[in-house]
Design goal:
Among the domains are: 115 residues, Immunoglobulin-like; 143 residues, no CATH class; 109 residues, Immunoglobulin-like. α1 packs parallel to α10, α3 crosses α12 and α8 crosses α9. The strands form four sheets. Strands 2-9-8-4-5 form a five-stranded mixed sheet. The chain has a five-stranded antiparallel sheet with strand order 10-11-12-16-15, with no helix packed on it. With 540 residues, it is an alpha+beta fold. It is 48% helix and 22% strand.
Length: 540
């Protein structure tokens, strides 16, 4: 069935091979690595600042850090600022009294995706009427944008990329060989409408990005103060540039007629390349390394899609009569030859991007991103198969016979673009939330309060607060701790504890992997009297 059919088969086999591949290093949105104070920690005195350290660059200009007391009342703190590098966010706090506190944070990673979280900490060892989790649930209602904002932002991304494909793809074909199609009034109207969609989607994306980043409402999309915040971060600047180029292309499309076609050709060529470049600038390549390499891969991927899908739109604009003529035959064959180059580029760059994002497909169906990817891959294989049929019809029955298959290709292509736009806002790997651990154990008349935070793989802070029988303030002699992972045959490892105050000990423990870890705390109450406290700490 020709080269395209062979490519379709190869694409299907390659997709299957990828789905059976093994995992390696993964890539996801920024995640919190550590905090000061640590999650669930017990402090002897008030901290001077809240410090959040992430595993990727953070756009501090749209970061938000809020502090609440044990009653759920907000405490005024300084605006967030960058720490020692662009992965650290810090906010100074006033002197705090003893009690329970909750921190609610929201940041935007370098790839333009908002990430939020929360944790609690305590100053002093007195008991609180509420737990840390209860306080967080009480004050965290405003940490997320409404679902309407997320849906609107997804629609904006879709309109933006669809408008770019319809305008730049069709415009490029009209001005680089398909002049017979460009002579038709419907083609010029198409470019004007496509430019309008591109501009509208870009404007929506710019306004709603700020709303997403600041957990605002739809009404905040019209707030100039939100716009100024967006313009201060890399993703926002890329979206603003896209808006400018979309407006310029719309102006060129409006003035395009036969007398100004040459001017439109030159202006559109520059504006199109620059406009397309804003998509990787506002996406995952912004936080990939080496950045320039993955920017180029993403731009080639998008450019090949623009040429291919734009060419399908161009054939639809040609009409039956032109496709049946000799000029239409030449245009269709030129498109077929170009598609034979674009399709391998799309497949190859798509594979590279996916491998960079998730490193394999062992757990692809675990996330919404992966499930949409499976649907997208299936539709792409269908799209390639239909393209193979079009190629066979073109070679055997002429260009007039491919109109129906071209319609099917275009419709499926638009659906694939919509799925891709939806995937951009989703994390490609499972988001493993930290699970702070806290427990109160009564043993031999003694109350022992244990806390481990943030409760994630890696370095954690352990606090042990002891109340001897009868509530005596007489200090115990010593305390020691150890952790083990019996299910994985990981032997017990000691945890060095230091005295923070009377009957208050703390230390750092590293969990190298997830699982149900056993925590043993050995307390020497008096000479010859030792109490063992044992608990299971689940690490997600």
């Amino acid at each position: 069935m020709g080269r395209i059919a062979r490519l379709a088969t190869a694409g299907a086999l390659l997709a299957g091979a990828l789905l059976l591949g093994s995992s390696s290093t993964v890539f996801a949105h920024a995640s919190l690595q550590s905090s000061t104070p640590a999650s669930n920690s017990v402090l002897e005195e008030s901290p001077t600042a809240i410090v959040l350290e992430f595993d990727d660059s953070i756009e501090v200009a749209v970061a938000s850090v809020e502090l609440f007391d044990g009653n759920g009342d907000a405490i005024a703190i300084d605006p967030p600022r960058q720490g020692d590098d662009d992965t650290i966010v810090t906010a100074s706090v006033p002197a705090l009294a003893d009690g329970l506190y909750a921190v609610i944070w929201r940041v935007t990673s370098a790839d333009g995706h908002p990430v939020d979280g929360s944790f609690s900490f305590q100053i002093g060892t007195s008991s609180s009427d509420v737990t840390g989790d209860e306080l967080i649930n009480q004050v965290r209602a405003g940490a997320h944008s409404p679902a309407s904002v997320r849906w609107a932002y997804g629609i904006a991304r879709f309109l933006s990329v669809l408008g770019a494909i319809a305008l730049i793809g069709v415009g490029g074909w009209l001005l680089t060989g398909a002049t017979a199609v460009g002579d038709r009034a419907i083609a010029r109207r198409w470019c004007r409408v496509a430019a309008g969609v591109f501009l509208f989607g870009s404007a929506m994306a710019f306004a709603l990005f700020g709303v997403q980043a600041t957990a605002g409402s739809i009404g905040d999309a019209f707030d100039p103060s939100v716009w100024s915040k967006v313009a201060g971060v890399d993703t926002g600047r890329a979206l603003l540039l896209r808006l400018v180029f979309a407006g310029a292309l719309l102006a060129l499309a409006i003035v395009w007629d036969r007398r100004s076609q040459g001017w439109w050709r030159g202006g559109a060529a520059a504006g199109s390349v620059l406009g397309l470049a804003t998509f990787p600038l506002a996406g995952h390549p912004n936080s990939s390394h080496p950045r320039l390499l993955w920017f180029a891969v993403d731009l080639v991927h998008l450019g090949a899609i623009v040429v291919w899908i734009g060419g399908l739109f161009m054939l639809l604009l040609a009409g039956r009569e032109l496709l049946a003529a000799a000029r239409g035959e030449r245009i269709a064959r030129r498109f077929s030859a170009t598609a034979a180059v674009c399709v391998p580029l799309i497949v190859a760059t798509g594979v590279l991007q996916t491998w960079k994002l998730v490193g394999g497909f062992d757990d692809v169906a675990v996330t919404d991103w992966g499930r949409i990817l499976l649907i997208k891959v299936t539709l792409v294989v269908v799209l390639l198969a239909v393209a193979g049929v079009s190629r066979w019809l073109l070679l055997h029955d002429g260009s007039s016979s491919i109109r129906r298959t071209v319609v099917v290709e275009a419709v499926v292509g638009v659906v694939v673009v919509a799925l891709a736009a939806g995937m951009v806002g989703l994390p490609p790997t499972p988001v493993v939330a930290a699970q702070p651990f806290a427990a109160r154990v009564v043993s031999e008349g003694m109350i022992v309060e244990l806390s481990v935070g943030p409760g994630a793989v890696g370095r954690n802070e352990l606090h042990v607060v002891i109340t001897p029988p009868g509530g005596s303030i007489v200090p115990v002699i010593a305390a020691a701790a150890r952790v083990a992972l019996p299910d994985e045959a990981v032997p017990a490892a000691p945890v060095q504890l230091v005295a923070e105050g009377v009957n208050h000990y703390s230390g750092f423990v590293t969990f190298p992997r997830s699982g149900d870890w056993t925590l043993d705390v050995i307390i020497e109450v008096t000479p010859g009297q030792t109490v063992l406290v044992k608990r299971t700490v689940p690490i997600p």
